[in-house]
UniProtKB/TrEMBL annotation:
ABC transporter domain residues: 313-546
Major subcellular location class: membrane
Gene Ontology molecular-function annotations: ATP binding
Descriptive protein name: ABC transporter ATP-binding protein
Membrane topology: Multi-pass membrane protein
Pfam family, one: ABC_tran
Transmembrane spans: 39-56, 114-135, 141-158, 222-247
Domain ABC transmembrane type-1, residue spans: 2-276
Source species, domain of life: Bacteria
Compartments, as annotated in UniProt: Cell membrane
Keyword line: ATP-binding, Membrane, Nucleotide-binding, Transmembrane, Transmembrane helix
Length: 546
């Protein structure tokens, strides 16, 4: 930024010297008819244009590289903050976070250009004022005194522009986030017939963004119109005064030409300075939104350094969302089923077990192998417990890259995992097999195929404690039975001490569990084997065997 500012200052200095040089040529070569002076002056003028041209070229190239690098670093910084294992506490939805890490990061980097051009504009104004002072003191004072007054008046409007820009950017980010969420969830919306309601919501949000954008455009137009008018009036005043002085013989013809040229040129730096507060307001709005993310607290604490020695899970007196004093335990190596009569209880339980919510956000305790999750190191907690949510995403790549998730897995190991998740046919139906291409979010696969590949990914981790939330809602009954048998065989054969919790209402999955808990109104209301509950609990039968 500093080097670029220096080049821009050289460029503006040379630009200011152009009318000065023309005035000198008129006064010392044309008026006197000196041919030698004319030739020397023309070569000097050509050299001046060469310097100003290359100064701008190098300055612009350097500042553009700096802006792009700074934008890249801020994008990486915001993305790192959002993707941090400890999470980030913010009210922004994923679409808004995407806007912050892209559009706002880019606009914030514009401050480098704003500073460089401000320094250059000030240089041009000062050089112009000095040149006019040399020609005539009142003309120079007009620029030296008029410019600060103009900038003061324009700066008074800067806070209003900042507030307007911040509001507009927030509304645009909100509607962008909503659009992202709607596009990603278009299939479920169609499934429940909610396209109309979603469109109405988007129209309303888009209308607010349009109103905010028009308000910002109106404020900027008024601001620029006022600034351009004031700058033009100052220029006209200087040129008119110089003409009057020339008629009185106070200045020469050459000096008059120089003054007229400078009065026209000074509009450029004054216009630049008048526009910069508006751009700075936009930059400030984006910077404020970046600060919301970069300055947000982490959701999770650093945690301790203890390592669990067993795979039992205990949840005691947990109150979170719809859970109300919830108690649950799973022994090492147990395959536990959890049937929630209300869907929100299942979502809340999966969130608590995931370890991705802060200890201050819920009451009660959650322990793994007798160690509280807060006492586990974050890496150890993630290694020990894996919660596969009901709504999960696949990534652009291949079936293999989605299943192994960055781990080294031999093909014979993958065969067992694919068989357990009933994903073998997903591989077999494509010529490229495991190397079959998968598009972003798994859009190239059907719902059932995506769910099975996601299940295979969860099983490939071989986590000591695995929690699966409704992992088979998109597959048929035959496939569901195969998955149930596969999970039990893969994770609970022999002396394996892996613990699995299935939050589901699938009778096929519940049939292979060792024990089932029935949850209603945030608490466990029944417990037993699948067969005992199916025979003796009417609500269980209605929910599971419907």
């Amino acid at each position: 930024m500093i080097i670029s500012s220096l080049f821009f200052c050289v460029h503006q200095f040379c630009e200011t010297m152009v009318p000065v040089a023309i005035g000198l040529i008129v006064g010392r070569a044309i008026d006197t008819g000196d041919g030698r002076a004319m030739i020397v002056s023309l070569f000097a003028l050509a050299g001046l244009f060469v310097v100003l041209s290359y100064a701008y070229r190098f300055g612009a190239r350097i500042i553009i590289v700096a802006i792009e690098r700074e934008a890249h670093m801020m994008r990486v910084e915001v993305a790192s903050r959002v993707l941090h294992p400890r999470g980030v506490r913010t009210d922004l939805v994923s679409g808004e976070l995407l806007t912050v890490s892209t559009s706002d990061a880019e606009k914030t980097s514009w401050i480098l250009d704003v500073i460089a051009r401000t320094v250059a504009a000030i240089t041009a104004t000062v050089v112009c004022a000095v040149a006019l002072l040399i020609i005539d003191i009142p003309l120079g004072l007009a620029v030296l005194l008029g410019t600060p007054v103009i900038m003061y008046l324009l700066q008074r409007a800067a806070p209003l522009l900042t507030r307007t820009a911040t509001t507009q950017q927030a509304e645009v980010a909100r509607v962008s986030g909503m659009a992202t969420d709607l596009v990603s969830g278009v299939r479920p919306l169609r499934g429940i017939g909610a396209e109309g309601a979603a469109s109405a919501r988007f129209d309303e949000s888009s209308g607010k963004a349009l109103t905010a954008t028009m308000k910002m455009a109106k404020a900027n137009s008024i601001y620029l119109g006022f600034s351009t008018t004031v700058s033009a009036l100052l220029s006209v005043g200087i040129a008119g005064t110089a003409g009057f002085f020339a008629l009185q013989g106070r200045i020469s013809v050459g000096e008059l030409i120089t003054v007229v040229g400078l009065s026209q040129f000074v509009i450029e730096p004054l216009t630049t300075m008048s526009r910069l507060p508006g751009i700075a307001a936009m930059v400030r709005g984006s910077a404020d939104r970046l600060a919301l993310v970069l300055g947000a607290d982490h959701v999770l604490t650093e945690g301790g350094s203890q390592v669990p020695t067993a795979t039992d899970v205990a949840v005691k007196g947990v109150t979170y969302r719809s859970l109300d004093g919830f108690d649950m335990s799973a022994a090492p190596g147990e395959l536990l089923g959890v049937v929630t009569l209300r869907a929100q209880d299942g979502e809340a339980l999966a969130s608590v077990l995931s370890g991705q919510i802060g200890a201050d956000d819920y009451l009660g305790t959650v322990t793994i192998g007798g160690v509280g999750v807060g006492e586990l190191g974050l890496t150890e907690a993630r290694r020990t417990v894996l919660v596969e949510p009901h709504n999960t995403d696949l990534f652009a790549g291949t079936v293999r890259s989605n299943v192994i998730a960055g781990r080294d897995r031999a093909d014979h190991e993958l065969d067992r995992i694919l068989a357990a998740s009933a994903a073998t046919d997903v591989v077999a139906m494509h010529e490229s097999g495991l190397d079959h291409a998968v598009t972003d979010r798994g859009a190239s696969l059907s719902g059932g195929q995506r769910q099975r590949v996601a299940l295979a990914r969860a099983l490939s981790v071989s986590a000591p404690v695995l929690v699966l939330h409704d992992p088979t809602t998109a597959v048929d009954a035959v496939t569901e039975h195969a998955i149930a048998a596969g999970i039990k065989e893969l994770r609970h054969r022999g002396d394996l001490a892996q613990t699995t919790v299935l939050i589901t209402t699938s009778p096929a999955l519940l049939a292979v569990t060792h024990r089932v808990l029935v949850v209603d109104a945030g608490r466990v209301v029944a417990e037993g084997t699948h067969h005992d509950l199916a025979a003796n609990d009417e609500r269980y039968r209605e929910t599971v065997l419907r």
